[in-house]
Design a protein that fits this description.
The chain is α/β, with parallel strands linked by helices. The protein is 43% helix and 19% strand. The protein binds adenosine-5'-diphosphate-glucose. Adenosine-5'-diphosphate-glucose binds next to α1 and α13.
Amino acid sequence: MSRLIVVSNRVNPPSSDGEESVGGLAMALAASLREYSGVWFGWSGKTVDTFTGELNIEEIGGVTAATIDLEEIDLEEYYNGYANKTLWPLFHYRNDLAAFDRAYDKGYMRVNRRFAETLAPLIRPDDLIWVHDYHLIPLARELRSLGVKNRIGFFLHIPWPAHQVMINLPRHRQLVEAMFDYDLVGFQTGEYQQAFEEYVISEAEGAVMRPGCLKGFGRILEVGAFPIGIDAADFARMVKSSRARRMRDLMTACTVFRHLIVGVDRLDYSKGLEERFLGFEQFLQRNPDLRREVLMLQIAPVSREAVEAYQEIRARLDSLSGRINGEFADVDWAPFRWVNRNYRRDELAGIYGAARVGLVTPLRDGMNLVAKEYVAAQNPDDPGVLILSRFAGAARQMRDALLVNPNSPEEVADALRRALAMEKPERIRRWGALFDNVQREDVVGWRDEFVGALSGKSVKMRPALVV
Ligand code: ADQ
């Protein structure tokens, strides 16, 4: 029976239930590994003067974590550079923000090589290896060059862009060709899978041999769509926790006679925060009768502060939030609350639960787990309304949300008005369909489907321990 080795850039399992607030990817991977007791390999988050390749092995929150430290220059060129200044903006259709710098490219290849050299000795012949996200696209190629013959899968958590966007990347062919060293490549939606296939057909003499089987660069690759979900059972437990209830009561108490509209995102330009603020401003301008009936709370902890584009967007949002309150606030009331900190996951569950509207309007998003968390936190007898961007991968599954174009402040303002006016029977009907999907297509199903496809079986693997 196989062991599962998960590889991602950062290894940061939550250390205890509900306490930590880590990103969507980390939550999903921790949930995947807890049951399998597999190994999670990646960067420790620490830097050293000279790379040694020394492994740190720890048990964190039921997960075996095997990590390496990187050099400062690796961080600069690979993480802040190629991953977050080149691939992230490009794959989110922000070519204007993408930096194409040969040093980043080289740093990216170097770190992927370092990962491969440190990981290869740990691999046993029948291990399954599951690599995550855009930081590690060439990892399979590096492992293959070291003689690793195991089944290796790759899952992309962010969008795969359209062919015409992808070809902006210098040396795009090398990057995509490296994906053919995997056995299976998974995307969040069928749309991203199709965009990938179109690229391969146009640029690499490719052809779809049959659904899920793609030829390109003279080789064969299995591809598929595996929409990620939340850990629905764990979240349901969290919603009932005393901390969640306390937070919900607190939020309800500070919004008496008013409806809470909530947004929760990492502070990132892909999340459409500026456009969302403008949509809310437009709503206030066009609905003087509703002004005093709402409070919008936007929670957005800062991320990737070393990258200039992130410093700039923060400054613009600080100023925009000030402008909205300056324009509409009164001595006893302000319409907008802008909060830049992390919350415990159980506290977030309580905040979602108190909100009449969940406003999730990214400009581009691989999936978006906040939309699913918001739905999972609602009271079935009196649920709130989800407003969701058409450009989030989640919009493919969550058809009963109010779907909007996040670039249009008018559409966002209209959807807010409609959500606030929506009668209970319609809210219950829409929420029922959304909740059903969130429960059915959760992180456990995602993991089992991917690992089943990678292993060539759809059976669960033996829980395994490691190294
Ligand atoms: P992210 O871009 O991080 O993930 P998302 O899917 O929304 O985006 O996940 C964010 C997670 O962070 C959620 O679980 C949320 O609860 C948490 N979070 C956000 N703000 C928080 C705060 N203030 N305090 C505590 N927790 C907070 C990437 C892709 C997504 C994809 C996921 C998973 O960009 O499209 O859905 O991976 O594949």
